[in-house]
Specification:
By secondary structure, this protein is of the alpha+beta class. Helix content is about 20%, strand content about 45%. The protein is globular, with a radius of gyration of 14 Å. The chain starts with 5 loop residues before the first strand and ends with a helix.
């Protein structure tokens, strides 16, 4: 795979926007679809602009992400640590029971170390649709 500065993926999930949005905000759900995470927590609940997500990976390392933009059931953006890495989730209702989700990640400096793949989003889709 060639080096990327940005990566955009979309997936359709057979659940309502509010269900998909709520699932993604809940830190307890992250390890269910992100293979590298073993634990995730937030600095406050409910989530809003300024909330901090902390996650622990399989190597025992912690990472911090700050919510920099938040619109309920529409979109949220996270910025990692020093502000180089960003990820935006955008939700579009296709019907009352179907959501198109866009996953967009980008870096300011360098290249994406490990760009997300469609396979990762397929795991998300499977987990959410089983709820």
């Amino acid at each position: 795979m060639k080096p990327l500065k940005k990566n955009k993926l979309t997936i359709t999930i057979k659940k309502s926007v509010s269900e998909v949005f709520a699932f993604l905000l809940d830190p307890a759900n992250s390890p269910r679809w992100i293979d590298s995470f073993v634990y995730e927590e937030t600095s406050e609940w409910p989530v809003k602009e300024g909330t901090i997500y902390r996650n622990k990976n399989r190597q025992g390392e912690w990472n911090e992400y700050t919510v920099t933009s938040f619109e309920q059931d529409k979109t949220f953006i996270l910025k990692m640590g020093d502000g180089n890495y960003h990820v935006q989730y955008t939700f579009l209702p296709i019907s009352k029971t179907e959501t198109q989700m866009e996953y967009y990640e980008w870096v300011i400096r360098d290249m994406l170390a490990e760009p997300y793949t469609q396979e990762a989003l397929m795991k998300l889709k499977t987990v959410v649709e089983q709820l």
